[in-house]
């Protein structure tokens, strides 16, 4: 075996190890998704409850609260309303309208009032339905604050944003906001019919299991290829040895003649 062959064999083994690691990572993600689906199913089936009863004094919507139905009563502050741009619902581009709901305890919660499909190439919705006057009761699904890594999409700028993020909105709107938001299921008085509803959560295992199988298959191919070429190399070496021996024997026979 020469140095080049050893280097190639090591590279193939490293490649196989990486494929196995990626396969295991996909299985880990599958376990996480199954656990999240269990929480989501439980929350979807739970009876509506007051917001503070669900979140407690922390006021933070966590993974364990996703899609839980909460009820809250207060008054909308339309002066601090934010238009969410570049949103998509059922593959349709459009806008979402987020309005703070002011609560009797001095805090406020962000309410995603609904989706407005984009008309033609408009950059902003031509008409935003007005908020109901006076006190409203909202029943909706809790969602975690959206985060976009190092982007500033959750910070409102000139009344618009790309993400719904409680702490980022609080800084700009100067409100004591819950960390998270509500999407409306029902509202009294009723929500404006111009708003489109949001789809429910996707509760399935996703493609992680099949991705894991693919990575394990790639690892098997790499190891199988190494074994095959090792055997081929051994046969070639043996053929070369046999040829050398044969040539030596012929040389000795010629010398004897």
TrEMBL record:
It is a multi-pass membrane protein. It comes from the Bacteria. Residues 141-161, 233-257 are annotated as: Disordered. It is found in: Cell membrane; Membrane. Coiled coil: none annotated. Residues 238-248 have a biased composition (Acidic residues). The chain crosses the membrane at residues 209-229. InterPro entries: Surf1/Shy1, Surf1/Surf4. It holds the Pfam family SURF1. Its main location: membrane. Keywords: Cell membrane, Membrane, Transmembrane, Transmembrane helix. Belongs to the SURF1 family. This is SURF1-like protein. It comes from Kribbella hippodromi.
């Amino acid at each position: 075996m020469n140095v080049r062959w050893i280097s190639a064999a090591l590279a193939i083994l490293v490649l196989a190890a990486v494929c196995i690691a990626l396969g295991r990572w996909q299985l880990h993600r599958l376990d996480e998704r199954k656990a999240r689906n269990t929480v989501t199913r439980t929350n979807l089936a739970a009876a509506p409850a007051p917001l503070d009863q669900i979140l407690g004094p922390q006021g933070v919507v966590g993974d364990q609260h996703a899609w839980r139905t909460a009820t809250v009563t207060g008054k909308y502050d339309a002066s601090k309303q934010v238009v969410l741009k570049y949103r998509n619902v059922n593959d349709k581009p459009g806008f979402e309208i987020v309005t703070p709901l002011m609560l009797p305890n001095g805090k406020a919660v962000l309410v995603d009032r609904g989706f407005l499909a984009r008309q033609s190439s408009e950059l902003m919705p031509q008409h935003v339905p007005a908020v109901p006057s006076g006190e409203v009761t909202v029943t909706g699904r809790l969602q975690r604050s959206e985060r976009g890594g190092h982007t500033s999409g959750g910070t409102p700028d000139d009344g618009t944003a790309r993400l719904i993020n409680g702490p980022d909105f609080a800084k700009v709107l100067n409100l004591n906001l819950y960390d998270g938001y509500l999407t409306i299921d029902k509202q009294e008085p009723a929500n404006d019919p111009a708003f489109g509803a949001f789809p429910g959560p996707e509760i399935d295992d996703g493609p992680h299991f099949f991705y894991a199988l693919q990575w394990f298959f790639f690892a098997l191919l790499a190891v199988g290829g190494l074994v095959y070429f090792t055997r081929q190399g051994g046969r070639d070496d043996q053929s070369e040895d046999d040829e050398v021996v044969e040539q030596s024997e012929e040389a000795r026979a010629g010398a004897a003649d």
